[in-house]
Amino acid sequence: MAAARADVPILAREVNGKPLVYLDNAASAQKPRAVIDAMTAAMSGSYANVHRGLHTLANETTEAFEAARETMAAFLSAPAAENIVWTKGGTEAINLVAAGVGATIQPGDEIVVSQMEHHSNIVPWHMLRERRGAVLRWAPVRDDGSLDMAAFEALLSERTRVVAVTHMSNVLGTINPVAEITRLAHAAAARVLIDGCQGAVHAAPDVQAIGCDWYVVTGHKLYGPTGIGALYGTAGALDSLPPWQGGGEMIERVTEDRVTYARPPHRFEAGTPPILEAIGLKAALDWINGFDRAAVLSHENALYDHARARLADIEGVRVIGEAAGKGAILTFTVEGAHAHDIAQIMDRYGVAVRAGLHCAEPLAERFGISSSTRASFALYNTLEDADAFADALIKARRFFQ
Questions:
Q1: Beta pairing, strands 329-334 & 317-320
Q2: Which tens digit of pLDDT belongs to each residue from 268-287?
Q3: Is the entire prediction scored with pTM above 0.85?
Q4: Are the beta carbons of 84 and 215 closer than 8 angstroms?
Q5: 3-state secondary structure labels for all residues of 170-200
Q6: Catalytic center residues
């Protein structure tokens, strides 16, 4: 993947006098030149607000904006661009669904989540627990980091209204069997939201094959800009949601006496949307599509395997999450050292890793840890990066011995 690395300008810089080894991709990926150039070109050569203008710049920008929606639909194998709602990120997309579903939630209705969820796929459902009397049911995680599917199925009942689970854990790297989860949930007459913020990057999702009602992605993990995400929904699932925010664009007609709302997806896109960000995200998706997805997955897994093998020789390191078929996320603890200290020492050697709870406190509690360090690999990382990571960790470990 040398070509991918050459496309990303920031990877040429140094940190603390060392070549940058960027392994914080699960938090936010770096941006290829194609994204930077696309956004710059849109700002400098053809920018206006979208949809309602009749002049040339408005028409050009609207075409670029809607072309991005079509590209996202194709990327997720959605049936049509109308199934894609632009949001400001994955978190907003989940909140949009939770708010809409919440209008029909009754006290005692159940929402099933897993112990491996990111806070963005926990807190919105907790808000329904607080405000509507919903009951959260927790699907447990096994010691290896896999989801206990038998326990998950046992949680489903006639009271289950929503199942909300991650496609790929941002801490464990576990890739969940989301098609099977969806099948079981639908058999219980529950609707399904899949958090695909990691899965869209590493698992090449086909939303029609998965069969879920909603699938959520965020742009900045897909090598695109911040401030944009997308919500996929089936036509029926989107139609079932009331408007979330009011304003321009999301209406058909407004009078002093009444208002009528636009059809999805525009019903959920009040106000000026993230225009430049959508154009940048399209460039990111086009860039990703320029690589063989299977080859990218194989490359990322090889980096993980190499780094994991190096860690086996370091005393006091505990790896969190080793489920079969997992993605290239390596989370670990070091005996006698806090994760923040490990990350800061590794930064001295130019290695950027994540440290803390990773917005997944229930999962940390499940594994009995107060913090952990995470290295997450992307298509532009190399075996040299994996070795630099291991070498920096060895030096950090020695500091605490």
A1: antiparallel
A2: 999 999 999 999 999 999 99
A3: yes
A4: no
A5: CCCCCECCHHHHHHHHHHCCCEEEEECCCHH
A6: 359
